[in-house]
């Protein structure tokens, strides 16, 4: 979407990440001006009501609950009335469930012998894994919220029925329609929030 904007501002607290973003940006044909600002989400050095759209992709899982509260307040401050905030983040419920299964497999391997599963090192920096319910609570009544659910597969179905791909697809699509199952097994959450 940044290709269509008259001005895009990228914010990160890491100068290295901003340099990388600037280099990636040079590879794309874009209109308008591009700026990269080194700042903390607790105090974004930009004017109030400045943005129509704000995208927070793969950041919420790196913030504590307190930092998320500050981030929501700052985003609300710099967003225009009727502006849209898009948040993308891994589903913390599914990640925690997967971690629990990994621990069970490790215990099983120690007791019965065999190889222990390798831990997923990508979750080490995910100190603030979140879920749909927490994000909606953080948004409060200041935003109208729509949620998109992305379910790659549901592990126990895929494993048990691997020889029947049509059955897997049917069951996965069916389970996506059941709210608590959908919220639990969503791989990646995308929430679109409109400022009210």
List keywords for this structure.
196 residues; alpha/beta; four-stranded mixed β-sheet; two-stranded parallel ribbon; 41% helix; globular
**What structural class results from the helix and strand content?**
alpha/beta
Number of distinct helices: 7
Low-confidence region ranges: none
Strand order of the largest sheet: 3-4-6-5
General shape: globular
Beta-strand segment tally: 6
Mean pLDDT: 81
State the share of residues found in helices, binned by percent: 40-55%
* H/E element order: EHEEHEHHEHHHE
Measured distance between first and last alpha carbons: 22 Å
Rg (CA only): 20 Å
Largest sheet: 4 strands, mixed
Strand content: 15-25%
Describe how the helices and strands are arranged.
Layout: E1 7-12, H1 15-26, E2 33-38, E3 51-57, H2 65-78, E4 79-90, H3 92-112, H4 132-139, E5 143-150, H5 155-160, H6 165-176, H7 179-185, E6 188-195
Parallel strand pairs: 1-2, 3-4
Antiparallel strand pairs: 4-6, 5-6
Explain this structure to me?
Helix content is 41%, strand content 24%. It is α/β, with parallel strands linked by helices. The strands form two sheets. Strands 3-4-6-5 form a four-stranded mixed beta sheet. It has a two-stranded parallel ribbon with strand order 1-2. β1, α1 (15-26) and β2 form a beta-alpha-beta unit. The radius of gyration is 20 Å and the shape is globular.
């Amino acid at each position: 979407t940044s290709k269509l904007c008259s001005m895009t501002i990228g914010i990160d607290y890491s100068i290295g990440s901003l340099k990388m973003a600037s280099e990636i940006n040079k590879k794309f044909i874009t209109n308008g001006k591009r700026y990269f600002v080194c700042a903390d989400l607790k105090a974004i050095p930009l004017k109030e009501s400045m943005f129509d759209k704000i995208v927070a992709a793969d950041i919420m899982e790196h913030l504590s609950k307190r930092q998320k509260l500050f981030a929501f307040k700052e985003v609300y401050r710099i967003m225009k009335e009727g502006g849209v905030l898009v948040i993308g983040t891994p589903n913390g419920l599914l990640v925690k469930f997967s971690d629990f299964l990994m621990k069970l497999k490790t215990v099983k391997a120690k007791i019965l012998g065999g190889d222990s599963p390798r831990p997923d090192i990508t979750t080490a920096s995910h100190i603030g894994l979140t879920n749909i319910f927490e994000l909606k609570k953080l948004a409060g009544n200041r935003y109208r919220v729509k949620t998109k659910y992305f379910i790659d597969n549901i592990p126990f179905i895929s494993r048990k029925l691997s020889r029947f791909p049509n059955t897997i697809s049917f069951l996965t699509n069916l389970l996506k329609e059941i709210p608590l199952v959908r919220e639990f097994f969503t791989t990646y959450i995308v929430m679109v929030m409109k400022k009210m």
